[in-house]
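agent> Task received from the user: take the single chain below, predict its 3D structure, and emit structure tokens. No templates, no multimer pairing.
agent> Plan: (1) validate residues, (2) run structure prediction, (3) serialize to tokens, (4) report one or two observations.
agent> Step 1 OK, no nonstandard residues flagged.
tool_call: predict_structure(input=
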Amino acid sequence: MTAKNLIPKAKSREYPASRYENLNPFYAFRQEMDRIFDNFFHGVEIEPFKKMPEAFYPNIDVVDGAKEIKVTIELPGMDEKDIDLSLDKDSLTIKGEKKEEKEEKGKNYHRMERTYGSFSRTVPFPVEIDTDKVEALFKKGVLTVTLPKTAKALKETKKILIKSQ
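)
tool_result: status=success, residues=165
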């Protein structure tokens, strides 16, 4: 029995057998190990070795209540002065820029990181909003915008009866 019989052949088309593989049994072994490590570490980013900067895309919750629409957006590490709210007749736009600096000092090292990222999110409205009564509250990194519906929008809401057969 030769060493080549102990090494499994590549099963996917991703690692096809080559002429070199037929001559050197350790080549197939290396390819298989590379494939295993690629699959194991797929999607894992170790902090100092990240390939791309982290994108800042804040989470938004939109609740359409009976009398108002409430928009909640998570903005950790930001101040209200870094946030821009604008309202037009059928949507709310939230823009901002996150600037974060981390500094660590140790006996044998000094590490400084800066993270910058801007975002823009637009929330469309299915009904008319009373723009004079809109309120925004920023507390502990969470922005809550309360958008009351107009009297006309409240009157136009109609309950639909569901029939069964």
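agent> Step 4: summary for the user.
The longest helix spans residues 25-40.
agent> Done.
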